[in-house]
Amino acid sequence: MRDMSAYKPSRRELLTLLAASPFAPRLLGAETDYTAWYREAKFGMFIHWGPYSVASVEASWPIMRPSKEFPITEEQYRALPQQFNPTKFDADAFVALAKAAGQKYMVFTTKHHDGFCMFDSAYTDYKITNTPYKKDIVGRLAEACQRAGMPLGFYYSPPDMNHAAFRDTSKPASENWNGEPTRSVWPLYLDYMELQLRELLTRYGDVVLIWFDGLYNQRKFDGERMHRAIRALQAQTLINNRIGIPGDFETPEQFLPAAIPVKGKKLDWENRDTGTKANYIPTADEFRLWETCMTINNTWAYNKNDQAFKSSRQLIHTLVEVASRGGNFLLNVGPQPDGIIQAEFQERLRAIGKWMERNNASIYGTTYGPVQGAKGFRTTAKGRDVFVHVFDWPGTELNVSAENLPKFGSASMLEGGQPLEFKQQDGRMTIKLPSEAPDPDATVIRLQG
Ligand code: JFZ
């Protein structure tokens, strides 16, 4: 049984815990829309990084659900931190790559399911400062983000294979990786979680969101308590939907919702049904904020054997499609053990960035467009503007039709502004186009109301 004495909360912590209680008045007016920056940003970088990169295996799952794909024993996996020393890690380079891609926020794995902390937590020894690298990587990234004005969020895993109050660690993680909340020590694990969240929200500046990843039976993590603790420290911090209570946004994983999400329907790695028909266009009030997280290949962590890279064209189409249904796109990188982000990820992110340089007005700050489920093109909207993203060039004429299609005053190429002739009659619109597609990936037409 591991020594738990470190977890006795001090008087100061008790006071602030009290401050965090639901009875404490909200610091800032309840009605403030904390999601405005998030709705403007639309595109973020997810980073899965830890000692697992040394073995080029997926994060945490190889000890939870051992597989032939990642043949490593729990003992070998737990020893990886002793070999983790990313001497080429340059936090400013990470931020610069995200900026070059057009990504407007970053979300970093502070602790994944394996329980290893990429920050210098006072409540565990299983952390980055006890590796040959010694330095607090979360701290380095937070400083680089502050220097560049890049919003930073933290992924934090409630499941913790390393913590003796989360599960009986004398057993293999493959036997009890989902945690054992009925054990008498469970409350100590919730204390540990709250103390670590307090570290993350008091030592690294503004934290724009907490990306929990509660896996199954998330109610055991007392989400209400964790929300209170977070809100008491940083009222503006957004929280996702993976700690047993709704939170601020849905998290479809590795897929795009087939229709525009609406309130009341959970979306995550297993819940995929939006409960609405494909072309249903919800009112702003019905709409539910959401964010698809996705890998560039098929592995969240660095995996030298995974060459299944999506093309930059495919990734640009996915970004557009996500935006066309009102969502955010959190595209992942798994850095190498030396701290470098591999060329295949960099090439694709920079290619997306090139497209965004020319077309970002049709993505940032937009919401779902008036035409849904069309073949070969997608639409986003911002104010009185509608942006038509053409994937498959139709030739010299594009037909756009939708029930309540707004009346437009002009049509033009977004890039370059070349006016386009168009006819519009009761919900049907025909736009005259040049014979060749100006952009090989997606050509954007701006319709101004
Ligand atoms: C979760 C993590 O497990 C994964 O490692 C990654 O961090 C992703 C962003 O979020 O994804 C899941 C969650 C649950 C299952 C698989 C992947 N599951 O239960 O099979």
Q: Could you characterize what this model shows?
A:
- This protein has 449 residues and is of the alpha/beta class.
- 24% of the residues lie in helices and 16% in strands.
- The protein is built from eleven helices and 15 strands.
- The strands form three sheets. The chain has a seven-stranded parallel beta sheet. Strands 8-9-10-15-12 form a five-stranded antiparallel beta sheet. A three-stranded antiparallel beta sheet has the order 11-14-13, with no helix packed on it.
- Strand 13 and strand 14 form a beta hairpin.
- Helix 5 (91-101) packs across helix 6, helix 8 (186-202) runs parallel beside helix 9 (223-233) and helix 10 crosses helix 11 (343-359).
- The longest helix has 17 residues, at 186-202.
- The N and C termini lie far apart (67 Å).
- Mean pLDDT is 94; it is low at 1-9 and 20-28.
- Bound molecules: 4-nitrophenyl 6-deoxy-alpha-L-galactopyranoside (JFZ).
- 4-nitrophenyl 6-deoxy-alpha-L-galactopyranoside binds at residues 59, 213, 215, 253, 269, 293, 300.
Q: Note the gap between the termini.
A: 67 Å
| Overall mean confidence score, pLDDT | 94
Strand share of the residues? 15-25%
Main sheet makeup: 7 strands, parallel
Count of discrete alpha- or pi-helical segments spanning 4 or more residues: 11
| Quaternary structure type | single chain
Named once each, the bound ligands are: 4-nitrophenyl 6-deoxy-alpha-L-galactopyranoside
**Unreliably modeled segments:** 1-9, 20-28
Query: What strand line-up does the widest sheet have?
Result: 5-4-3-2-1-7-6
Task: Specify Rg, calculated over alpha carbons.
Answer: 23 Å
| SSE string | HHEHHHEHEHHEHEEHEHEEEEEEEE
